[in-house]
Predict the structure.
Amino acid sequence: MKYKILTLGCKVNSYESQFYNEQLEASGFTKANEDEPCDLYIINTCTVTNTAASKSRKKIHQAKKENPNAIVVAIGCYVQFIDEKQRNDLGVDIVIGANHKNELVKIVSDYIKSKKMNTVVSIEDFSEFESMPIHEFESKKRAFLKIQDGCNQYCSYCAIPYARGHERCPSKESVIETAIELSKRDHDEIVLTGIHTGRYQDGSTNLAGLLKELLKKTDSRIHYRISSIEITEVSDELIQLMKENKRICSHLHIPIQAACNETLARMNRPYTVEEFKERIQYIRTQLPNVSISTDVITGFVQESEEEFNTTVQNLKEIGFSFLHVFPYSKRNGTEASKMTGEIDGNVKKSRVNVLLSLSKELRLNDMNRFDEISILIENHKDNVYYGYTDQYHMAHVYSNQPLEGRINVKWDAIENETYIVKEG
C-alpha cells in the first residue's frame, strides 16, 4: 500500500511525521512519489492559527480529491482542538488526536481489517508521554530527539495547550537509550526538542540533569543542541553545564514574542522586558560565545505604533543573533481571539518587513563576533560542503578534499547570511 504524509505546523509535527514514516516503512507500506496518487494519506494537522486550521482542512480535501478511494487519516492538533461535529464534517476515515499517535500503524491496520474509526481522547485524560523514537534521519549528521510534549503556559494567542494537553515527558532511561541508538547510526549532533523543552522533568531529573546523563553515556563526538527554551527555564545549573562542556552547542533559541511590557501582558507571557534583559545579560557574562536567537509575533491585538517601536528598540538593545518573525494570526477559541483591536493586514506586513530587515542586521553583527567557527558538515555538492556552526549560522566550505564531521576553521567572507570558507 502506497502512502503520503502531508505535514503542517511546527518542528515537533515534522518530527512526528518522520516517526510515522519510519514506522510505516518498517511495516511494509511504500512511500509514494510526490506527484502520484496513493492508497493512504496522513494529514499531520496544525491548529496554531485560523490560517493553519484552514490549511489543514484544505490538505484533507486535496487528498480526498486526488484519490476518492484512498484511506485518509487526519491526525494531531487540529482534530484534537475542534469539536465532534467538526471532526465528523471532515469526512475522513480515521481521526487521531494528540493521543495514540504512536499507534498510527496499528490503527490503520485495524481500520483496513474492520473499518473501525478511531476517536479523539479528551486532553484531560492525557497522562503518559507517548514514546515516538526515530532511529535514523535523512540529514544523517543531525538528529532530533523529542523529550517533552504539551504545555501548561496558556499564552493568550496560543491553542497548543488545548490541542496537545498538559506537559508530559519520557523517562530519562528511554531518552538515553534512544540517544545511544542515534549515535550508533553516525549522527553527530542530537537536537533535544519538544513543545516546552525546558520543562523536561523525570522525578528529580530536570533538563540539565538529563543533559549530564546524555553527555556521560554517549560517545564524545556527539554534540547536543536545545531546540527552544523559555527564558524562565534557563537555569543556573544549565548555564554552568554549558560553560563546562563544549559538547553542548553555543546557541539558545529563547522566544520573547514581544519586547514591550504592555504587549507581553496581553499575551500572558510570564516575564517583563526588564526581567528578560537581565537574564540574557547574565547568560552572556557566563557564556560569552553563546548566540541567542528568538521568536517575535508582530501585529498582536491592540499593538500600537508606540508598542511596536518599543519592541524594535528593545530587540536591538538585547542584540539577538537572529529573529524568527510571525505576523499575529487569530485562532478562534483562544483568549486573544476574544479581544478587540485587530491590526490591519497591511500594517502587519510592514512591521514584519521591518523586523526581517533587523534580523539580517543582527545576524551579521553576531556572525562577525567570531574569527574561528566550528561547523558540522551535513551534506555537499561537488566541492561545496554545507553545514551549521555551533551558533546555528549557515556555512559553505569550498574544499577539494573530502570533509566530514565537525571541523574548526576561519571564515573568509559572509554572503547572504552565510559564512564562506575557502579551503583550496
Q: What stands out?
A: The mean pLDDT is 91. The two ends are 49 Å apart (CA to CA). Residues 2-121 form a domain with the Rossmann fold fold (CATH 3.40.50.12160). The longest strand covers residues 372-381.
